[in-house]
Structures are given as structure tokens and as C-alpha cells.
Amino acid sequence: MTHSFDALIAGGGAAGLMCAIEAGKRGRRVAVLEHADRLGKKILISGGGRCNFTNIHCSPENFLSANPHFAKSALARYTPADFIALVEKHRIPYHEKTLGQMFCDRSARDILAMLEEECRLAGVSIFLNTRIKEVSRATEFIARGADNEFRAPALVIASGGLSIPKIGATSFGYDLARQFGLKIRDPRPGLVPLVFDQQDRARLCDLAGVSTEVSASCNGAQFREKMLITHRGLSGPAILQISSYWEKPGSVRIDLTPGSELAAIFNDPKTPRTLATLRSELRKTLPSRLADRWLEMSAPASWTNTALVEFERQTHAWTITPAGTEGFEKAEVTAGGVDTDELSAKTMECRKVPGLFFIGEVVDVTGHLGGFNFQWAWASGAAAGRAL
Ligand SMILES: Cc1cc2nc3c(=O)[nH]c(=O)nc-3n(C[C@H](O)[C@H](O)[C@H](O)COP(=O)(O)OP(=O)(O)OC[C@H]3O[C@@H](n4cnc5c(N)ncnc54)[C@H](O)[C@@H]3O)c2cc1C
User: Fold this and answer.
1) Distances (CA, A) of 324 to 197, 226, 248
2) pLDDT, tens digit, for every residue of 220-276?
3) Is 343 helix (H, G, I), strand (E, B) or coil?
4) Is the preceding peptide bond at 249 cis, omega within 30 degrees of 0?
5) Would the pLDDT of 16 be above 90?
6) How many helices (H) and strands (E) does the chain have?
7) What is the Å distance from ligand 1's center to 194 Cα?
8) How far is the CA of 144 from the centre of ligand 1 (A)?
9) Does any ligand 1 atom lie closer than 6 A to the CB of residue 374?
10) Is this model's pTM higher than 0.90 or not?
11) What is the Cα–Cα distance from 382 to 100, expressed in whole angstroms?
12) Which residues on adjacent β-strands are paired with residue 299?
């Protein structure tokens, strides 16, 4: 059976639904083609089930992309306040958790229900269990599913990244970009735990569950947040954030005691220069087990001023070379993606292929942890939806 529309949207996640709503509101006949048996599965599992749907401190600096300017236009034209207004219109209770992160009070289901209701009001057609097998383009785009064929002059790819394949992530968007000769920045796991090499695993993983505030840095980025030791390596917000900047075989620098000057106590000549003194000082800033382990790993070679300065330096600059990451199975996002040089920053339309749009996570724009990835999905979805 053949269905004809003004626009087809491949993927019924955050970006696809926002795009459909904006286009539908402008009278376009829009179809969302979703291969899963329901819309927005990632929205439902987001933010621990409460969906961190935006961040009120959103700015272009909260995003990684080969072109740091690309996201500016879309982000300026659909802001966190715009999304919050929608949330308020639907009387969804929400709160700011920390650092501008806005969460539902009740459940992420509220956000999905809101988007579904907006789609209904905008007259959007939804096709679930619809996997697109093939796309061709003559005078218009033709997307073929198992039993259906869809035709439209515009095709929007909103199929997301590669993270969490078990809830439906596919390489569809990247494959389609390649089919049309578009450049792709290598997709890699972002916001993902890091895995230790053999040596660090042997000396630290028995501390799994221990967490502390650190400052983690890599490739010019720096985040001061909590770090958690896991059974295989490191996680926690500081590590998830820095993981998006890390690339094998690079290293990550961790300041274990940011802002504190441990060796300062030894400036007082009456303070005994002993391991016990240093241990009790270190335990004031680090959890005891980690403080003790750090001293086993890096105790000062002697009690001279030079050795103490070196110990201080090492504690503020513990350098690890991860063996890898926990991969797309555990990654919250996919960094990299369709090269932004291929797209109009205003509309998300391909420069080379008029009528073809890419939005959301499949594009080489990746947000920091804290509601920024959804804000990009809403903003890029709205940008395309207004251009259809
Ligand atoms: C566990 C977890 C928690 C998260 N929490 C947050 C959070 O609290 N705040 C935040 O800002 N970000 C969060 N994120 C990131 C956020 O969910 C994504 O960045 C966002 O969903 C991307 O939106 P999208 O529409 O581009 O892709 P998606 O939401 O992934 O939607 C893509 C859709 O396309 C469908 N699809 C895929 N392939 C095909 C195909 N071939 N044919 C048809 N349909 C297809 C998928 O089934 C899916 O429905 C979280 C991610 C994870 C994994």
C-alpha cells in the first residue's frame, strides 16, 4: 500500500516528535515512521525515569561538535523556556534538581504523553512497527517498509544514535547519510563509563562503589563533579562528561582533591612528617579507603619539601589511560555523526540533497550531561519542522 505525505519523519523519538508537531501545526501532512512498537522509548528511560527534559542554563558551550557554532541558531530559536512553556501548558509538575537540570516530578511518561497529545492535535500520522528497508529518491522520496511504501517531497532522519541498541538504536541514519554521499564524523560512545587498563583494575576495582568529588580533564575540557569507582573502571558525572571528549589512546587527568593543598600542613615545622599525618590529612578530603589506597600507590618518596611538592602535584594530576569505554550498550549518547558541514544550521536540511533533513542525535552535535541532549533534540526538531 502506498501512502503520500508532505513529509516523512524516520524515528519517533524526541527530535522526530518535536519536528512532526511543528510541521503539523503549520498544516503539513506528516507521517512519523517508527520501527519500535511504541514511540519515545528513550524518553521513558531518561533521567532515571523522570526525564531531565532541559537545562535552563543551556548555551552553545554545552555541546561538542566539529563545528562549535553550528548549534547556535537552532538553540536560539527554540529555547529551554519554550519547552518549559509546553510542559506548563500540559500542567506537568516539574522541578529543578541541580545546576539548571529540569526533571518531571512524577515520570518521564508525562513528557511522552504530552508529545503524543501535541502530535494528535497537529494531525500527525504515526506508523509504529514500521522499519524502513530502503529509501530512494526520484521526484520525491520513497521509503519502503515491509508491506508499505511512503512517498513525500521531504524526508527527515530522526533515528538517533547507536547508544542502547537493546531499546531500538540502529545505524539507519548513518547508512542513509552514506547512501546520499554525506560525510560522517566517526560515531563513538559519549557520556559513558571508562574502563581501566589491567594495572589500574587490579589496584582499584575492589573499591567499587567509592565516590568522591574530582576535577576531570581531557582535550581542553574540564568537569568538577562526582567520580565513582566501578567494578571495571570509573563512572559518575565527572567521568561521563569527560568521556565525550576522550579518544583512545588518550589519557584523562583527574585532580583527586580539587581546591585543597594537602602538603600545606607540613609548612608548620611542629607537624611530624609521617605517613600517619598525611593519611589523616588526605582522609579529610577523600573517602578513607581511597585515601589509604592512594597512599599505597603514590606515597611521597621521602619527606623532603621536593618530594611533598611532587606528591601534591600527582594527587592533583592522577593520569589514567583507559583501556576503553563501556561502549554503546552503556553510553547515554553517541558523539560524532552526520557532519554539520553538510547541513543548513537554520533548517537542518542537506545542502547537497534538497528535501533531506537530519535532526537530533544522529547529527554531530552532542550535549553535556544535564538535559542538554534533549534540548538539542527539541531545538533541531523545531528548526526542521518549521522549514518543512
Ligand atoms: C539511559 C539514557 C538516559 C538519558 N537521559 C537523558 C536525560 O535525562 N536528559 C537528556 O537530555 N538526555 C538524556 N539522554 C539522551 C537522550 O535520550 C537522547 O539524546 C535523545 O533521545 C535523542 O533524541 P533523538 O530523537 O535524536 O533520538 P532517539 O530518542 O533515540 O529516537 C530515535 C528513534 O528512532 C527510532 N529508529 C531507529 N532506527 C530506526 C529505523 N531504522 N526506522 C524507524 N525508526 C528508527 C528509534 O526506535 C527511536 O524511537 C539519555 C539517554 C539514555 C540512553
Assistant:
1) 8, 20, 7
2) 999 999 999 999 999 999 999 999 999 999 999 999 999 999 888 998 999 999 999
3) strand
4) yes
5) yes
6) 12, 23
7) 21
8) 23
9) yes
10) yes
11) 22
12) none
